[in-house]
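Ticket opened by: R.M.
Priority: normal
Category: complex prediction / small molecule

The reporter submitted a protein together with adenosine-5'-diphosphate and asked that the result be attached to this ticket for the collaborator who will pick it up next week. Submitted input follows.
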Amino acid sequence: MIEFKHVEMQYPNGFKGLKDINVQIEQGEYVAVIGLSGAGKSTFIRCINRMHDITDGELYVNETDVRKLRGAGVRKLRRNIGMIFQSFNLVTRATVLKNVLVSFVPEMPAWRKLLGVFTQEEKRKALTALDQVGILDKAFVRVDQLSGGQQQRVALARTLAQTPGIILADEPVASLDPVTANQVMGDFARINKEMNMTIIMNIHHIDLALEYATRVIGIRAGEIVYDGHAKDVTEEVLNTIYNGQRPIEED
Ligand code: ADP
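Result attached by the on-call engineer:
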């Protein structure tokens, strides 16, 4: 479970990115975080894996007090939290399999890092993760030969190979065409169901958020202004979240 209790996050310049956030997210939920650009969506998810430090209140991930963690504690927290970005963050000149194997590097002894040696177990895990996102046949293809949707699936496989309990996704389909975006959203939904993985995703496509996520958190100016079932999101709710300025869907 992830629990925010009266969380505030203030940037060094004094700007409050989050104000009095109170929320509990159970294991296995699929949450879409929506709101205008600059509302605080990224700030919200980045506090969960300590990419940002909260400045007031309490934040727990599986009963661990995130604020108190230091070096090794932060690394342990992040082993259980996969992060997916809009830009995929892949080594495009390397093969798909190599990109997935990279997820094991932080845990490897120095000599294996140096020689780039992976165990059979690591290779098996990487291939299983590629199978889970339907691109096992691309294992030995260079990433720059793949479509955007396939590249996002490689990023998802790299995260799955760590077997995290939680995936944070920051606008994972923002740069994809509508058909591919739907497919990638479907991948997330399947992984959420089959593996009971918690997914917390920032997304500006309202229609995709409402179709795939089960819970919606609406953030406006650093505050949660809606938290409920995706199916209960009405026009009125959207007007509140977006302050009457609904973003124009690009597709
Ligand atoms: P979103 O993901 O909803 O687009 P962010 O969480 O990225 O919004 O940002 C929330 C607010 O915090 C924005 O108004 C942004 O300008 C501000 N912000 C983001 N990063 C910083 C920073 N390093 N210093 C000061 N303000 C920041």
